[in-house]
Amino acid sequence: MDAGSFLKRHQVLLAEDDEISQEIVRALLADAEDIELTVVGDGKAALEAAMTTRFDLLILDQNLPFITGDRVVRHLRAGSTRNSDTPILRFSAAITAPSVRHTNGFAETLLPKPLAGEIFVSTVKAILDGEGPV
């Protein structure tokens, strides 16, 4: 067994409807051997995945089909779900600079689109390393 097989696998959910953006995130996280990425294409699928699987990080686009990123967050934070306290990183073309927003007492990191590779990767790693939103 090699050293890489002993790494903790972080379960990360990406909810993004744009296939190009999905591929960009996959490429940005490709070198992170400790991340197992689950990709869904709409808010309904994101909510279903988050209700059945415990994730270490949820990455949500704001403008998802069927259920928006905001509504996914509100639903998860409202009750005792598997991911009611999971860190959330959201991104949207509607914001202009990285920021932190608090929803029901939980901090969420917001990043603008298009994603800046270094900022995105360092933010994901900081959250997964327990350093919280940057």
Integer-rounded radius of gyration = 14 Å
Distance between the termini: 35 Å
Computed structural class? alpha/beta
CATH topology: Rossmann fold
Figure out the total of helices: 4
Number of strands: 6
Structure in words:
- With 134 residues, the protein is of the alpha/beta class.
- The protein is 32% helix and 25% strand.
- The protein has a single domain (10-128), classed as Rossmann fold, CATH 3.40.50.
- The chain has a six-stranded mixed beta sheet.
- α2 runs parallel beside α3 (69-78).
- The model has no long low-confidence stretch (mean pLDDT 85).
List keywords for this structure.
single chain; Rossmann fold; 6-stranded mixed β-sheet; 134 residues; 32% helix; 25% strand; alpha/beta
SSE layout and pairing:
Elements: E1 10-15, H1 19-29, E2 35-40, H2 43-52, E3 57-61, H3 69-78, E4 88-92, E5 99-103, E6 106-112, H4 117-128
Parallel strand pairs: 1-2, 1-3, 3-4, 4-6
Antiparallel strand pairs: 5-6
Helix pairs in contact: 2-3
Nutshell version of this structure?
The protein has 134 residues and is α/β, with parallel strands linked by helices. Helix content is 32%, strand content 25%. It contains 4 helices and 6 strands, in the order βαβαβαβββα.
